[in-house]
Here is the input.
Amino acid sequence: MKMKIMALVPAVLASAVVLIASPAWAAGGHVGFGFNARGISGFPTGAAFLTGGGSYNPGTGFVKSAGGFRCTSDVRQGPLNGCLKGQGVRWDTAELRPSTTFTCTGAEPVKTEVTDKNTVVLLADFYRAGDGNDESFTALMIVSADDIAPDIPGIQKVWIQGVGCAPAIAHFSS
Here is the structure.
């Protein structure tokens, strides 16, 4: 009897490993990303520069990302309203979002973008010099390896809520 139990232990342990690992595998792994976008615009006023990167997991909601930003012309609408030309230092992530709706100009049809292995939708905090660790603005943003707005001329890979879209150098790896 003791021999049968000893023979059964490895099979039970192997089954437990498979059952425990399955949800983790189904959730997917971490995705790393990095990007550089100049000339983000499209709304009536304002433009911005945004760069950065990080890691996220669409299955678990984990995110750790940050970077630099600067308003390159005065923003007079949306969440970055009041960001003047030359202001802006950095951004960091408040939350990973599963999806968002957006427009690049406010005039074209609304589109939806989903967080996956090639695209990340973030709620981000933006900081100006002098504001210390208190965020100056909070806005949604999208970074993608693919064109997020095929109805707009050019290849749009980055979007900031209330500012617009832009082409970007964007890399994703998982």
Notes: The chain has one domain: 34-173. The first strand starts at residue 31 and ends at 42. The two ends are 47 Å apart (CA to CA). Residues 27 and 59 are 4 Å apart (CA to CA).
